[in-house]
Amino acid sequence: MPKSRKIKHYSLGYMNRRRRRGKFLKALLFLLILAVLIFLGYCVAKSIENLRNRPESSDTEDSLPAVSAVISESSMESSAESVSSQIETTESQGVQAVFLPQDALADMDALETFLDSLDQEQYSTVAIQLKNESGYLSYASEVPLAASCGAITSSAVSLEQLAETVAAIENAGFTPAAYLYTLQDDVASHASYGTSYLYNDQAGITWLDQAADNGGRSWLNPYMDAAVDYLADLTAEVAEAGFSLIFADGMQFPITRYPAEMGFGPNQDSMTQTEALQNVLDTMQAEAAKGGAEVVPVFAGECYLGENESYYGGSPDAIETELAAPVLAAGQETEILNAVSLESEKLIPVISSAEQIPVLEAAGITQYLLKE
C-alpha cells in the first residue's frame, strides 16, 4: 500500500508576511533602478554642460594666429609682387615722362590728385623740375654754394619732403625723374664764385650775354672747375634723394651778341668747347652713378640741323652719351630725328604736345618727355 504524502498547510499569517516581503523587494529594486537612471542622467547632463562651457582648445587658439600669419604673409607677398610688377612694367615700357606741376611738389594732396589722374598706359615716369632756367632750386640743397649764392627759393621743400615725394611717386607705380638746368644759370654764376665767364678775361668781372639794362644774364662756365663741381654736387644730392633719371638741360654755351668779350678763363686752352661740355656731362654722370642714377642731356633739336651750332661748339652728336633727349619742335620731328646718329631706343625726345606722340611712334620711338 503506498505511503501517503504529507500535505503542509500554511497559516494565513505566514502567507501575508511572504506577500509583504515580495512587495518590499520589488519596491527596493524599483528605487535602485530609478537611482541608477537619475545618476546616469545627471552624469550625461554634466558632461553636456562641460562641453558647452569648455574653452577652445589650445590647438585651435594656436592655429588662429598661424592662419592670420599665413594670410598676412600672403597679403604682403601679393603687395610686394604688385610693386615689383609695376617696376618691371615701367622698365620694360621705357620712359614716357610728364612733368609734375610745381605747386604739387610742396602739397601732398595735390601730388596725390595728380598721380591719380595719370594714365599708366601713357606715362611711366614723373619728372620734377628741381633747378630752373634762371638757376633757382625748388628744394633746400645742402651744397654750400647753393645757399651762399641765394639759389634756394623761399618755397623750396626740404630734402626730407623731396624724399617723401619720390616715395609717393614710386608707390603710385611711376619712376621719379629730376630735371635740372645746368650751365644756364644766372644765380650761381659770378666772378666772385669763380664759376662764370669773365668780361674780356678780366679777373673779377662777370660777363653777361646782353647789356645789364637789357636783361643780360651770366652763365656757368664749363671751363671753370668751381662751376663743374657745383653741378656735380647737385647731381650727387639729387641722385641720393632717390631719382634714378636726371635730365640735364642748358648744357651749352650762351648765344650772345658779344662773343668777343666772353672770356673762358685760364683753362680755355686745355679743352675744345665740345670737350669742355663732355667733361661736365661725364663728371655729372660719375656722381649720378654713385647713387644709381643716370644723366640724360637735353639738346636743342635745331642744332642737329646745323643751326646755332655754337651752343655745343658743333653738333650735339659729337658729345658722347648713352641716352639723349633732343628737343623736337612741332613739324620738325622727323627731320631732327633723321639727323640724330644715336640709336632710336636711346632717345627720349622732349616734346611740347601729346599730339607729337604718334609722329614718334611712326619713327619707331616709344620714349618721350612731355614738357608743355
Structure in a nutshell:
The protein has helices at 12-53, 58-93, 108-117, 144-148, 159-171, 225-240, 273-290, 333-339, 357-362, and strands at residues 96-99, 125-131, 137-139, 152-157, 175-181, 198-199, 245-249, 262-263, 294-299, 325-326, 350-351, 368-370.
Q: Helical stretch count?
A: 9
Quaternary status of these chains? single chain
| Shape verdict | elongated
Tell me what portion of residues adopts beta-strand conformation: 5-15%
State the helicity in percent bands: 40-55%
Structural class label: alpha/beta
Mean pLDDT score, rounded? 85
Segments where pLDDT lies below 50 for 5+ residues? 1-22, 55-91
Q: Any idea what the radius of gyration is?
A: 44 Å
First-last Cα distance: 151 Å
Q: Describe the largest sheet.
A: 8 strands, parallel
* Number of domain modules: 2
CATH architecture of the largest domain: Alpha-Beta Barrel
- The number of E-state strands comes to 12
Question: Could you say what the CATH topology of the largest domain is called?
Answer: TIM Barrel
Structural descriptors:
372 residues, eight-stranded parallel β-sheet, disordered N terminus, single chain, DUF4015, TIM Barrel, 13% strand, elongated, DUF4015 domain-containing protein, two-stranded parallel ribbon, alpha/beta, 9 helices
Model description:
The structure is a single chain. The protein is α/β, with parallel strands linked by helices and 372 residues long. The protein folds into two domains: 43 residues; 277 residues, Alpha-Beta Barrel (TIM Barrel), CATH 3.20.20.80. The protein is 41% helix and 13% strand. Helix 6 runs parallel beside helix 7. The radius of gyration is 44 Å and the shape is elongated. It starts with 11 loop residues before the first helix and ends with a strand. The N terminus is likely disordered. This is DUF4015 domain-containing protein. It comes from Candidatus Merdivicinus excrementipullorum. Pfam families: DUF4015.
